[in-house]
């Protein structure tokens, strides 16, 4: 996570100022995640221990799963906003889409969190919260794949459009793993074992969703910056904004 942050922020000067906001937010997403993963690790070490037979058992200290959900509350809306910032949208459209997606993602996380308190012995409640969180989840998936399709198709550079479409598809693919992992305790898996699988699954999903999408966002900003530089150099009569002067050098 932190390596992704360092890479993205180091690469800021290579992109036009217009697209640097998306890179800054991408780096912020993995920076916040890095901090919370350190807290999650510390809490895990305190809450569980390895047994001689290779299994794990609780130590009696509580495992604070709230760290993960606090991370998601902060990073998931930002992850969606970084995608919006590289799309061919007006300022008004970008603000509206960013607001709606941020609200939907926050509701999704807040509704899903109470279900984490219920183990395999109370499946009905866990199913209830899973179903509730799937409503905003499906709205987000629909918006990424269909609601923003027109904006993606409006890109004049097909290569850029393909990169943005890849960001959207990769995000949806990685997000589909979260509700699947959430279901693990309902499959009859012992609680301590399910806890290991859940945290492993969420961690892999986070790496794909945050680091993977961050790198894809970088590719989009690089491609768009290259196209912008080419256009400004081919049209010297076009007024060049002051913030692009150093970018063209």
Short description:
The protein has 9 helices and 2 strands, in the order H-H-E-E-H-H-H-H-H-H-H. It has helices at residues 2-10, 17-47, 66-85, 91-112, 123-147, 149-153, 158-182, 191-234, 245-248; strands spanning 48-50, 56-58. Helix 3 runs antiparallel to helix 4, helix 5 packs antiparallel against helix 7 and helix 7 (158-182) runs antiparallel to helix 8 (191-234).
Strand order of the largest sheet: 1-2
Q: If you compute it from the alpha carbons, what radius of gyration comes out, rounded to the nearest whole angstrom?
A: 21 Å
**Structural class per helix/strand content?**
mainly alpha
Gross morphology:
elongated
User: Mind describing the biggest β-sheet?
Assistant: 2 strands, antiparallel
Report the oligomer: single chain
Uncertain segments of ≥5 residues (pLDDT<50)? 242-246
User: How many beta strands in the DSSP annotation?
Assistant: 2
SSE layout:
Layout: H1 2-10, H2 17-47, E1 48-50, E2 56-58, H3 66-85, H4 91-112, H5 123-147, H6 149-153, H7 158-182, H8 191-234, H9 245-248
What can you see in these coordinates?
The protein is an all-alpha fold. Helix content is 74%, strand content 2%. The chain has helices spanning 2-10, 17-47, 66-85, 91-112, 123-147, 149-153, 158-182, 191-234, 245-248; strands at residues 48-50, 56-58. It has a two-stranded antiparallel sheet with strand order 1-2. Strand 1 and strand 2 form a beta hairpin. Helix 3 (66-85) packs antiparallel against helix 4 (91-112), helix 5 packs antiparallel against helix 7 (158-182) and helix 7 packs antiparallel against helix 8 (191-234). It is elongated, with a radius of gyration of 21 Å. It starts with a helix and ends with a helix. 28% of the residues are buried. Residues 242-246 have low confidence and may be disordered.
């Amino acid at each position: 996570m932190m390596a992704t942050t360092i890479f993205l922020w180091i690469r800021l000067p290579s992109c036009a100022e217009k697209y640097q906001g998306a890179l800054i937010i991408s780096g912020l997403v993995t920076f916040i995640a890095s901090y919370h993963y350190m807290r999650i690790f510390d809490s895990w070490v305190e809450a569980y221990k390895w047994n001689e037979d290779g299994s794990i058992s609780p130590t009696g200290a509580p495992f604070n799963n709230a760290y993960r959900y606090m991370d998601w509350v902060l990073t998931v809306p930002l992850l969606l906003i970084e995608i919006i910032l590289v799309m061919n949208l007006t300022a008004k459209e970008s603000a509206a889409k960013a607001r709606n997606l941020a609200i939907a993602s926050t509701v999704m996380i807040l509704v899903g969190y109470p279900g984490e308190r219920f183990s395999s012995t109370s499946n009905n409640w866990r199913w209830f919260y899973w179903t509730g969180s799937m409503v905003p989840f499906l709205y987000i998936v629909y918006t990424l794949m269909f609601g923003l399709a027109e904006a993606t198709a409006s890109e004049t550079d097909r290569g850029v459009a393909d990169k943005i479409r890849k960001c959207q598809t990769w995000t949806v693919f990685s997000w589909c793993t979260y509700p699947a992992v959430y279901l693990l305790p309902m499959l009859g898996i012992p609680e301590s074992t399910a806890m290991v699988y859940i945290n492993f699954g969420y961690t892999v999903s986070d790496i794909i969703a945050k680091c993977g999408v961050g790198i894809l966002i970088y590719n989009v900003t690089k491609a768009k910056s290259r196209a912008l530089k080419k256009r400004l150099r081919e049209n010297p009569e076009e007024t060049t904004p002051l913030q692009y002067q150093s970018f063209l050098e």
